[in-house]
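lol forgot to send this yesterday, sorry. struct tokens for the thing we talked abt
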């Protein structure tokens, strides 16, 4: 068959063609004002009538019938598309050349066997792609013919079984995605640069990113639909529906979903740190939440200005410096909090927990560690071989620990050295060969006692001054002129005596003569009164100091509910300001309690019994 545009006489009358197919001198055209389904129906009628499209542009034919958009609605003269050279008959004798077509699921196969020569030795006619298209259409294969492969095998003349048509699988679309749009939420694990220009290889530059309010964090990329496929019959194979994403599912506290002209974004509604929980929800908070642990691989050493919560472990030699620290995993490193509370939900093993302005709570076991709260309480479930200090220390079970505080409360203490102003132990005893040592801290009252003595001495001095001035007043009162004047003045004041005119002048002279003496007496009487007041003040201060001495001494108390084994209780005298005696390095605490360098006084030493002792200073 030829692909030129020479018309075939009487191949098909114009009125015999299906609606939508037009044959002209220039070729065969499709009416593009019709929908693809209407065009497929017209082609089906043409092929079922025993005709074919000669000189067919198969790729354009396939694209027009199955992939063309909706009708253009243009004038008919402008909506024609040439797809073939002519319409020709497809005789039954030629159809026998395509009897070996096999349909195998998603493919159609054909065996291109050699065609034998006829009896006269004439070479057989060749197979043709246009005939194959028409034959496959009549057999239900209306889509997916590999025209290039078929043409090539026909041109080569080889005998070979090939796939001549295959299904077009649908192309999946793109699922909705959340795309990071803020560099502020990315970590920077480069070494941290120090102020002097050196690099700290044990710390990362920005392990926990911070963002500002209104910062865009994530952008929603909408899902894109896929492309449909076609089976061999030309039926549409719809693509799988793409999955959409919802920004609201990842919006945690401190974030909000906002719509902008270029799309939907997850936006920070406050300044803070970026936290992502186990469900992928993003929140912005002043608290840092980590789930990877503190190690040289994950975070390095940390120095933070915010509350910190860690779900992993803190490994050996790692430093975590911050405030309000919560750790869910075991801690083997060192924690330093400048405030808030240190809470360990697991164990502290060979590490350090130090809080400058807050409490420490350990729910697990503290073993071989240092636990110190400079201005706060320490609450432990179980402590073994630890150094512990704080304003108040409360432990369920302590073994072989060195403990010092203002107040210590322990349910069971074994082989510990405990020092505090107020000690309450439910059961105390040794551990193996380690003695149980208890040191109630008693105050050094020498300063208060010296203040009492000084006040009493000054009161005695004022009493002495008072007596001396009174004696001087008595001596002046015994002078003859003074005695006579005072007698006359008393009688005149009481009305017992009335002076005559001749007596007034001598009386005035007497009064004038002793006036300086009376003035001196008045002065002395003022001094006496002042001495009495000052004496009373000194005595009051001395009594106040006595009460302070008793109150201070009474704060030192030791209660042992049960003594179970060798236990020694000795009062340890501490200098003034002993409330901060626990503010010492661990080595000094251990040396203080195990060597008892400060002076001590025996209180109790026994292997059984109980004790309720309150310090009473010597009288």
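and heres what i got for the seq, position by position
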């Amino acid at each position: 068959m030829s692909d030129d545009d020479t018309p075939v006489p009487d191949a098909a009358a114009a009125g015999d063609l299906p609606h939508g197919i037009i044959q002209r001198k220039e070729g065969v055209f499709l009416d593009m004002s019709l929908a693809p389904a209407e065009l497929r129906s017209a082609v089906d009628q043409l092929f079922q009538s025993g005709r074919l499209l000669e000189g067919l542009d198969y790729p354009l034919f396939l694209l027009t019938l199955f992939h063309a958009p909706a009708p253009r609605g243009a004038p008919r003269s402008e909506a024609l598309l040439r797809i073939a050279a002519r319409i020709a008959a497809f005789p039954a004798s030629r159809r026998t050349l395509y009897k070996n077509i096999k349909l195998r699921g998603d493919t159609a196969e054909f065996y291109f066997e050699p065609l034998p020569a006829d009896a006269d030795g004439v070479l057989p006619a060749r197979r043709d792609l246009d005939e194959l298209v028409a034959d496959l259409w009549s057999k239900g294969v209306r889509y997916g013919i590999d025209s290039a492969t078929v043409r090539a095998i026909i041109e080569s003349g080889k005998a070979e079984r090939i796939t001549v048509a295959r299904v077009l699988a649908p192309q999946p679309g793109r699922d909705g995605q959340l795309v990071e749009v803020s560099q502020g939420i990315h970590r920077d694990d480069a070494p941290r640069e120090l102020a002097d220009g050196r690099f700290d290889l044990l710390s990362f530059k920005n392990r926990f990113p911070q963002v500002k309010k209104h910062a865009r964090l994530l952008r929603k990329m909408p899902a894109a639909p896929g492309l449909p496929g076609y089976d061999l019959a030309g039926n549409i194979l719809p693509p799988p529906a793409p999955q959409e994403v919802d920004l609201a599912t990842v919006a945690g506290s401190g974030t909000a979903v906002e719509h902008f002209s270029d799309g939907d974004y997850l936006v920070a509604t406050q300044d803070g740190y970026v936290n992502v929980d186990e469900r992928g929800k993003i929140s912005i908070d002043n608290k840092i939440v980590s789930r990877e642990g503190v190690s040289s691989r994950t975070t390095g050493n940390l120095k933070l200005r915010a509350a910190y919560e860690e779900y992993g472990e803190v490994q050996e030699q790692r430093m975590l410096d911050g405030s309000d620290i919560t750790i869910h995993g075991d801690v083997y490193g060192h924690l330093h909090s400048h405030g808030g509370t240190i809470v360990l939900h697991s164990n502290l093993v060979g590490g350090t927990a130090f809080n400058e302005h807050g409490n420490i709570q350990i729910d697990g076991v503290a073993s071989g560690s240092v636990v110190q709260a400079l201005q706060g309480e320490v609450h432990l479930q179980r402590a073994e071989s630890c150094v512990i200090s704080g304003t108040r220390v409360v432990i369920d079970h302590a073994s072989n620990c060195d403990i010092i505080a203002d107040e210590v409360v322990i349910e069971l203490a074994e082989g510990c050295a405990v020092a505090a102003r107020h000690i309450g132990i439910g059961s105390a005893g040794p551990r193996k060969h380690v003695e149980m040592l208890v040191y109630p801290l008693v105050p050094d009252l020498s300063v208060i006692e010296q203040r009492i003595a000084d006040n009493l001495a000054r009161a005695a001095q004022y009493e002495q001054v008072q007596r001396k001035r009174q004696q001087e007043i008595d001596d002046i009162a015994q002078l003859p002129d003074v005695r006579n004047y005072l007698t006359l003045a008393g009688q005149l004041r009481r009305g017992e005596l009335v002076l005559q005119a001749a007596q007034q002048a001598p009386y005035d002279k007497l009064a004038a003569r002793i006036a300086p003496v009376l003035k001196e007496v008045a002065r002395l009487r003022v001094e006496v009164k002042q001495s009495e007041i000052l004496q009373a003040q000194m005595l009051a201060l001395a009594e106040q100091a006595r009460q302070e001495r008793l109150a201070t001494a009474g704060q030192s108390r030791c209660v042992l509910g049960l003594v179970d084994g060798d236990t020694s209780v000795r009062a340890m005298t501490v200098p003034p300001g002993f409330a901060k005696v626990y503010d010492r390095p661990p080595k000094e605490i251990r040396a203080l309690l195990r060597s008892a360098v400060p002076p001590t006084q025996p209180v109790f030493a026994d292997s059984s019994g109980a004790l309720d002792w309150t310090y009473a200073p010597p009288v």
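The mean pLDDT is 83. anyway ping me if u want another try
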